Amino acid sequence: MIDCPHLTESLSDPLSPDATKHVEGCAICRRARAAFKRAEDSQPPVAQLDKISDLVRRELEQHPKVWPWWVEALAVAAVNALMAGVMLLSMKWNTVQHDSPVLRWAVVVDLVLLVLGGAVVAFAPGARAARWATVALAAFAVVGTLAGASGLTAVPFAKSYSCALIELGASALPLGVAVWLATRMAREASRVVSYGLASGAAALLALHLHCPNGSLEHLVAFHLVPWGLLIGIGLLARAAVPTKSYAP
Amino acid sequence: MERFCTGDASAFEALFKRHSGAVRGYLWRLVRDTSLADDLTQTAFLSVTRARGRFIQGNRFKPWLYAIATNAARDVLRRRREQPTETGEVLTGDDARVEASEPDKGLEAQVRKALLQLPDAQREAIELHRFGGLSFAEIAEGAGVTESAVKVRAHRGYERLRELLKGVWQP
Lengths: 248, 171
Known about the structure:
The structure holds 2 protein chains of 2 kinds. Chain A is an all-alpha fold.
């Protein structure tokens, strides 16, 4: 049987001094290591790499210039900002929803950061930690919205679902643009979460300053849950569209 | 890479010549299917061309290229949800496990089969390090994770290999 308590270390590379000593005296580990080396040395059949080279060269000739990543990031941020701007200007200003002006504006700042920054970090190469920072920003927006809620209800709960429809409808374009542009990089859940949050934040920002309903159940069901739903829609949409480039 | 980013075809030729064979070998080890490995090599280099605007100047090209190749292979394997064998036939995990315990196969083949049964992240860490010749730091750079995370993945992979090889009888 190929079984030795030191096999894990014996297969590793480079070998530690202790493992080297062990391998020298252990037939099982020597055998397993040799087999591993042979598997390592095995080669695939010869390929027609010239064909691949020609194809890629043609692609390069057809597209000699390429946009830097931040152009796509700014495009998504601009669409988000445009949507937020259109909604802010087209709806009636209302602050009945809030009990605390400090929290109201803190959430506004937070959402603006998400609208712009979320889009940028979603498209930035690397930036994994920054992408998770967007989740922290979203968490703050949720806590701030609920903690600062006035509890006042202008419209009965059952009839106040229009906020969810507005949020989902207004987020469709920013999210669609983000998903489409994101096909130029590898599919990664944290990126979808970032641009999903950013897309939803644009509509949420408008609702935050215009919705006359400050009850917790309304805010949860028709402002915040749709925001989470957008991430799910984004993940499904991104999984459904083919990837054009697998760059990280 | 800087010249390639501006669309210089000769720079591409140099990069392709230097890396294509090794990348194809790496992809072949991941998928164990020659035509799929060729397709993935093509996809990887097309990705490099299309996404060269995402390459950060000053970074190393090789980890970036291997990260792209890994992402492409992972996407294909995810879609397949099954593990391919050397001959291109598709085995489910269970079938592969049964074969791995057959006594009449060579240990080398058992090692290869055991490698195929590792979770993607563990296998990629081992393949990139042992077969791709990348350091743990370079793998981490490409994958966007910490070096210690890659080391843990590789260690867990070796542990799993040990467990899988336990059932192999070698007279």
